[in-house]
Amino acid sequence: VSQSRYHEKSIVTNKKVLRSSFQLLTQLDHGSYGNVYLAKRGEILSIVKQPRMAEMNLLQEAVLQHLSHKTMEALHMAWAVPKVYDVFFKGEEIWFSMEYIYGSSIPDWFATTKTPDLDLVCLIAQLALILATLEKHLNLDHRDLKSSNLLIKKEPCHLHATFHEIDWTLHSPFTVVLLD
């Protein structure tokens, strides 16, 4: 999809009317769940998900993504999960948009890194802390973890967390983001 403009109906949630008007720039991914697009609303880039799944499943995904971000935000780890901007109708379909993350895919990162062993350890450690945090606070058991659901940002990550009375400290030259 190139340079398409969409104006959607508004949807009312929690007494708040959400409207979305954005320009689809390019398709980023195509999966069994639907399509993912890079979009622009004003000067803000975002990710827009078009469902292929049932409306309730996509709505549940949007709500879970929102809860995950809010949970991580409360724990000073908002960088770990993109923020959901809104949920809206486009025609008869429910779509949602979320924060665009500037980063590299896992294959792209490891194709260019000079320290693949260290980077793999840092990736696994960050991912383990993110997943453990989501499981602890939301009882979330992520069952669709794959490399296309992760991005690496070129920003250092410094984490300190306590799990099962063990203090964990991680200093990584990059940051892992869980997209889905």
SSE blueprint and pairings:
Blueprint: E1 4-7, E2 11-13, E3 16-18, E4 21-31, E5 34-41, E6 44-51, H1 55-74, E7 84-90, E8 93-99, H2 106-112, H3 116-138, E9 150-153, E10 157-163, E11 166-172, E12 175-178
Antiparallel strand pairs: 1-4, 2-3, 4-5, 5-6, 6-8, 7-8, 9-12, 10-11
Helix pairs in contact: 1-3
Structural features:
single chain, 180 residues, alpha+beta, 12 strands, 28% helix
Structural class: alpha+beta
Q: Please identify the oligomeric state.
A: single chain
Distance from N terminus to C terminus (CA atoms, Å) equals: 22 Å
What is the residue-averaged pLDDT? Answer: 81
SSE topology string: EEEEEEHEEHHEEEE
Which segments are poorly predicted (pLDDT under 50) over 5 or more consecutive residues? 1-19
Q: Can you give the helix content as a percent range? A: 25-40%
Report the total helices.
Answer: 3
CA radius of gyration: 17 Å
> How large is the share of residues in beta strands?
35-45%
Sheet with most strands: strand arrangement: 1-4-5-6-8-7
Question: Biggest sheet, in brief?
Answer: 6 strands, antiparallel
How many beta-strand segments? 12
Shape: globular
